[in-house]
Write a structure and sequence with these properties.
Number of strands: 10
Strand order of the largest sheet: 3-10-7-6-4-5
CATH architecture of the largest domain: Up-down Bundle
Bound molecules: zinc ion
CATH topology of the largest domain: Dehydroquinate synthase-like, alpha domain
Order of helices and strands: HEEEHEHEHEHEEEEHHHHHHHHHHHHHH
Length: 440
Amino acid sequence: MKTDLKSLMREDGFVCPSCGKRHFGGLTDCLIGSGAMEELPLLLRKYSVQKPFVLCDRHTCEAAGERVARILSSAGIAYALHIVEREKPAPDERIVGEAVMFCPPDADGVIAVGSGVLNDTGKILSRAKGIPDLIVATAPSMDGFASGTSSMERGGLKVSLPSKCPDAVVADPAVLAAAPVHMIRSGVGDMLAKYVSIAEWRIAALLVGDPFCETVAAIVKDALDTCVKAAPLAVQGDPDAAASVMEGLVVSGLAMNYAGISRPASGMEHYISHILDMRALAFGTPADLHGIQCGIATLETIRAYERLASITPEREKALAAVRAFDPDAWNAHLREQLGAGAEAMIAGERREGKYDPQKHAARLEKILAHWDEILAIIGTLPKSAELEAFMRSIGHPTSFAEIGVSDGDAREAFLMAKDIRDKYVLGRLLWDLGLLGEIG
Ligand SMILES: [Zn+2]
Ligand SMILES: [Zn+2]
């Protein structure tokens, strides 16, 4: 089955045959194809934008911004263009402030040209001003194009800010294919994460009652298959293949909007990546592109699931591990490893109380009663050896060491990933079984 992107973006959403809910995609227009950028004047008219503010950096300006400017000029559209001059701008107060200060007061729409930071900034600006947001994508590097949140650094901490789902995403395959190959691999890595996130969504539905939707899971799996198939040619610079990867990434973002939660697209692997980002922010340790970190973490997580599947869970061992667990010592460890970023995680635990021995005992009984089903879900994951071979074939790093992260830091990230959000992921399952530390 190939998911038809258009059918997913109906403004009135669709009533789901699996879960009965009405799912909304959020994104209204997505044009991926040669000539897509030439449609910008038409799109602007559709959204009643007469004076767009075009935001790009030096690289994305060269990749697509200059062409956007030409297209707008020849259509007689009075735009304002701002180029962020510094190399690798961080997604923080500075770039948001810069966007606000350079955006003319009468701008009535935002066109963010880029992938990642510029898109996230454009979404914040358009939300603050209450004006439409359009994205001209320059690289298929992550799955946040259709998302209504911005991944930012605020006050020195990583946060996911509610911003605005873009109204339209536009991408020219030739532009996507010309993106640095590391960015294309990053997009594929962000999609590989979906093997784990879908499996963990099923496990969470089974153990802690997270609302699950078979249709949304199937859409994400379909997008993942599309990306995996297209990846080998995409990393060689083939425009059609790069377009397929881009389409998969947009569909994945839409699926998150349908579900109303991030479950379909992120799990343990994303939290490992998140910890690495937090440490990088606090202590300047090495970090790589989001999707690259997620891709490597997916492989690590699947290896850990394979180890778990070879073990028979023991009630007494799990109960003894929880009795021996010292929450205060663990919180001190989080603070030491993550700096100020640990506080939000510690506050999260205070609200949810996952370490409560009675709650743990109840979860443990459920795990033991459903062990066969958990094994069946783990069985849906690709074999780690096959995944590793695939990643190597497209030049995607397969170990944290390759991106400069030490073995110790990678192991710590695995251990701390369970505390990022109130979401049932592998780290929690291992903790519940008294196996965190033995596995991982
Ligand atoms: Zn549904
Ligand atoms: Zn991601």
